[in-house]
From TrEMBL:
Residues 6-235 form the ABC transporter domain. GO terms for molecular function: ATP binding; ATP hydrolysis activity. Keywords: ATP-binding, Nucleotide-binding, Transport. Gene3D superfamilies: P-loop containing nucleotide triphosphate hydrolases (3.40.50.300). Pfam families: ABC_tran. SMART domains: AAA. It comes from the Bacteria. Transmembrane segments: none annotated. This is ABC transporter ATP-binding protein. CDD domains: ABC_DR_subfamily_A (cd03230).
Length: 311
């Protein structure tokens, strides 16, 4: 088993006001994986990323980036990291090429590079390389942030809500680039509100809420363990309400009365489906069709956060 490229141990953040932004957190990121960190606004996602990137000082804990202590060896650790922040912080009067080149030189790399040209081409920015940042659209400015983060060829790329509020074309280009970077060995860590993207892209998923990392698991294993299935039963005749005899099953009735929905645990030894169908037959309730579907990662996330809050 390869050693993780990034290790977070007991890292927390409490501000002078007493606000706890991040509870003690342990996390290990494997080299070359795509890791998605999911959580609502204010959950602590950005705080964790900013601590790892050296923007925020942790209240406790240690961070190791590719063998380097991120606090004692900040320069060596930071040059291995690229960060695409949520907010745009660039000189609006500089050109695209100058902005990206400056970022590359900050990390001690040569300013004249075929690599920069390739990054700009991958992000559809090469034709805009001489344009000033202020002349670009919002989507193009977001592309510049990505190019800046990649300018010094980092081994780890943080994407903090990278596609929030951007156009479909940028989102498509963004994920195409992520696949290409990952194929080249870059480790990708992203936060996103677009849970379907995490479901499609990530190898592992972490769920964070109220400053606490609730769980980390392989995406497929998470969905297998926590995923529920739904069975829609299309009735032969509409039903006014659910008979009391069906109370032992988790069923609901569609507004038009023509469809029963049964939610069950696919991993359970007994799903309850055969007994439910037998009960429907006993009650003289006919049906025309059955259809089952898995819950999405979003369903799991919502249920998990709700359960933890209730606890």
């Amino acid at each position: 088993m390869t050693e993780p490229i990034l290790t977070v141990a007991g890292v927390s953040k409490t501000y002078d006001s007493g606000t706890v932004a991040l509870q003690p957190t342990d996390l290990a990121i494997n080299r070359g994986e795509i890791f998605a960190l999911l959580g609502p606004n204010g959950a602590g996602k950005t705080t964790l990323i900013n601590i790892i990137c050296g923007i925020v000082t942790p209240s406790s804990g240690t961070i190791t980036v590719d063998g380097h202590d991120a606090i004692r060896e900040m320069r060596q650790a930071r040059r291995r990291i690229g960060l695409v922040p949520q907010e745009l912080h660039v000189d609006m009067f500089e050109t695209v090429l100058a902005t990206v080149t400056f970022s590359r030189r900050l990390f001690g790399r040569s300013g004249h590079s075929d690599y920069i040209e390739q990054v700009l081409r991958d992000l559809s920015l090469w034709d805009k390389r001489k344009a000033k940042i202020m002349e670009l659209s919002g989507g193009m400015k977001r592309r510049v942030l990505i190019a800046k983060a990649l300018a010094h060829e980092p081994e780890i790329l943080f994407l903090d809500e990278p596609t929030a509020g951007v156009d479909v074309a940028l989102r498509r280009d963004m994920w195409k680039l992520v696949h290409k970077l990952r194929a080249g060995g870059t480790t990708i860590i992203l936060t996103t509100h677009y849970i379907e993207e995490a479901e499609e892209m990530a190898d592992r998923v972490g769920v964070i809420n109220q400053g606490k990392l609730l769980l980390v698991d392989d995406k497929d294993a998470l969905m297998q363990k926590l995923g529920k299935r739904e069975m829609d039963i299309t009735l032969s005749e509409p039903m006014a309400d659910i008979p009391a005899a069906l109370s032992e099953w988790d069923v609901s009735l569609a507004e038009d009365g023509r469809r029963l929905r049964y939610v069950f645990d696919a991993t359970a030894e007994r799903t309850g489906i055969p007994s439910l169908l037998r009960k429907l037959a006993d009650l003289g309730i006919g049906f025309k069709d059955l259809e089952t579907s898995k819950s999405s990662l979003e369903d799991i996330f919502v249920d998990l956060v709700a359960d933890k809050v209730a606890a």
